[in-house]
Structures are given as C-alpha cells and as structure tokens.
Amino acid sequence: MTVVEALTHALDADRVRVDADARSARRHDYWMVSSLRDRQGRGAPMPACVVRPASVADVQTTVRLCAAHGAALVPFGQGSGVVGGVIAGPETVLLDLGALNRVREIDPVNLTARFDAGVNGLVAEEAVAALGLTIGHWPQSIALSTVGGWIATRASGQFSTAYGNIEDIVYAVEAVLPSGDLVTLGRGPRAAAGPDLRHVMLGSEGTLGVITGVTLSLRRKAAAQAVTAFAAKTMQAGFDFQREIVQTGWRPPVMRQYDERESGRLHADARDCAVIMVHEGPASLVAAEVEAVTTLAAEMGLAPLPPAIVEHWLGHRNHVPGWDQILDRGIVADTVEVSAPWDRIGAVYDAATRSVSEIPGCLAASAHSSHVYRSGLNLYFTFAIRPDAAQDMEAAYFESWRRVMTETAAAGGSLSHHHGIGRIRRDWMETELGATGVTLLQTLKRALDPAGVMNPGVLVPD
Ligand SMILES: Cc1cc2nc3c(=O)[nH]c(=O)nc-3n(C[C@H](O)[C@H](O)[C@H](O)COP(=O)(O)OP(=O)(O)OC[C@H]3O[C@@H](n4cnc5c(N)ncnc54)[C@H](O)[C@@H]3O)c2cc1C
Q: Model-level pTM?
C-alpha cells in the first residue's frame, strides 16, 4: 500500500486531496526562486497528495503513517514563507494546516488566547480586537500567514521594538512530534524547568514536528498613539539616535530607519535617512516619549519631518508588489534581513550595499532597519538585479544573497533576523552556529526524527 492509499484509508475521505488543483496550489511557498523556476518550466513538482487534517488526531495519524512509509512530510501554513521552506517533491505528503482553524479560547483576565495552528494571523488579531485586546504581532504578512507559521519561522512584527518578537509573545506551544506523540510546552507565565522546550518548536520550520496549537499572550489595546519622524544626515547618525532612545529606556513600538534611496521610496516629503516612530501606551507615557525623542533629535542634529510620512506608512505598510510584476521585467529581487550589534551595524550596512551594488545589472541595493534592541538592531536589505540574459537571473539572485551573507558575517553580524533559514540560508548555518552548533542541531533532528521525514532539505545542513 502506498502512503497515499494508507492515508486515504485512515482519514476521512475529504481530508486527502489528490486532485491537481489542490496539489499544484501548494507546491511551494513565496520564495522568489520558486516563482522564477515556475516561469522557466523548471518548477517544483506536485506533491503526492495534500492532507488537510480536521483534528490533532488526524495530524498524529498522518505523521505516523509518513514515518512508517518513509514519506517526506511538509507542513504548510499559508505558504507566505520567503526562504524556500516549502517545496514539494513527487513523493511528498503536503500537510496543509488550514482546516485546523478554531479560535479555541480568549481569556481576558490572564490576557491569553489559544488558537489552532492554522488560524490566519489577521483572523486571530480581529478575534482578540473584538474584546479590546491585541496580540501586538503585526508582520507585514499578517493576512497571509498562520499563527503556527509564526512560531515555525520565529516571525517578527512591525511593532516588535516594544511588544517583542513571536518568542516574547508565545505562551504555550502544542505540537505533534515526528513520533506522533503530542506535547504541550508552556504552563505558566514563566518557568525555570530546565531548557525552555518551546524553543525547540520556535524556528523549527517543519523539521522537528507539526505545531497544532498556539497560546499567545495578549495586551490591552493602547489608549493613545502618536507618530514622529526625523531626518538623519547619515545612516550612522540615525543609528546613534535610535541607540540613544532605546538605551535611555524609551520604547516606541515602531522604530524604522531608511537609507536615502528608501527614504525617497517611502514618501515624497522624506529626505536624508528618515527615522519614523509610532508611540503607543497610556496618554501620559506617549506624551513624555514624544517630548523626549523630539528633544533628543534636536540635540543630536536631526531635523523634524512631517508626521504625514508616518501616517502614510501606517496606511500602506502591508502593500507589496507580487513577484510576477518584477520577473516580467527580467528582474530578480528580494529582501534579506540580518542583525548586528550597534558597533557593527554601520559596517554591515556599508559593506553589503557596496558589494551588491557592484553586481552587473544591479538596479537597487538599499536597506532599512525595523526592529530595535538595547544591544543592536536589524537591517532589511533590498536588492534588484537585471542581468543581460534571462538565463542568468537565478545566478544573479544567488550571487546577491551570497554577498549579503558574506559581508554581514565578515562585518560581525548575524545572518538572519526573522524570515528563517529555509533552503536559501542553509549553507550558511555553520557560519551562524559554528561546526559544533550545527552538530547539536543535527543531533536534535536525528533524535526527534530518526526517519528523516520532516521537511527534508530545510534548515538542518546534511
Ligand atoms: C509580503 C510578505 C511580507 C512578510 N512580512 C513578514 C514580516 O513582517 N515578518 C516576518 O516575520 N515574516 C514576514 N514574511 C514571511 C512569512 O509571512 C512568515 O515567515 C510567516 O511566519 C510564515 O507563515 P505561514 O503560515 O505562511 O507559513 P508557511 O510559509 O506555510 O511555512 C513556513 C515554514 O514553516 C513551516 N510550518 C508552517 N506551519 C507549520 C506548522 N503548523 N507546524 C510546523 N511547521 C510549520 C513550513 O514547513 C515552512 O518551513 C512575509 C512574507 C511575505 C510574502
């Protein structure tokens, strides 16, 4: 019996889809290379079947049958991942969590909400918003992604500087391990019960189990909001300004800094290196923070910019052009997010943008920062390359990535901030973790998934 036959036999008939529409729609995620290969007739094949579990028990059955048949199992949230975390093979079982979509419980006293892993991010936010609460996690892809996907990729939201990344917001994780056993990790607001095993699932990218349930901690919606914007003469001047703000103890949820090229794209009134902020909280705190950053900006030589720039960003922040519009013009493009401590971030910015701009056919090499910490911040590079010949597009794409990774590592940065590893970054895992760190990850993978069926080819180097 094949694995598809075994699944069809074990699950309700409508849970296992073998029609071309279902299989074709979930062949890959939003990685540009997969779209490029589709257009060049070299796209990912269809999976053997798509399983849409209706219960945690269905997930356990699927995981056990895949292990028994040695069939690759690829979890799929909504396919908004951008690093090649989902690519089907002809023998692959694609596990689409989309039918596990219940809001299980919202607890307004303890400020927690329990969701099935397949709940769409915006649906989750709207469910708690109806009670005057917020998750405070606003990835640009909030409407395109699932709460389980957020955990699996260690996602970051646009308001992270005050509200944290997903690892700061998650309260408990329920997952089916590759053995088929169910585990729930996280019982209280904090524990000193050995290593925090929730982190085995955070960033696991479908390689260590299937996340089936997620409990997130919530906040009351902010009573007040204000925006500010300033122009820094150089990227370094903007970094110094941001460092002073967070190290003094202020926490604007949104702090973003654009280089000159991206400031021009942000808004007609933005100039130099625009730094924009959204301030939220009790009205007195917001007023004090606005006054403090405005005073600091004047002291540090940054000029005020019109608040309309930030209002415009708030209104348009989730609009992204599709890959087809770019590929149609013979251009490959992508974003690459990294992080670095304060004393290295300027060097990372300079080296990576310079190196990418030297690639033949480079149309853009720019960056902004969007997530700020007491010890440093991220950079979000954008590149666009139009090679002379269409057959060189993929090579130009990989060369751009190689240069950002190499220059970031050489300048002392960390190679990923929030999109994860997938396939595109896997070869740099040793640079990021060291050889012993890679061995530790491989050991964990072998211990949990001895049959090697969970999302092979992703995250863990061979
Ligand atoms: C326009 C756009 C904007 C984006 N903006 C942001 C942003 O602001 N911040 C950010 O962090 N990311 C962003 N992303 C990336 C992406 O949205 C995130 O990585 C998101 O968390 C992926 O969720 P998903 O449900 O779509 O997962 P998928 O893309 O379906 O899967 C991603 C990976 O997680 C695994 N996976 C998914 N669900 C599960 C599960 N239940 N159990 C185990 N493994 C699972 C998959 O196997 C895969 O390896 C953006 C993407 C796009 C296209």
A: 0.98
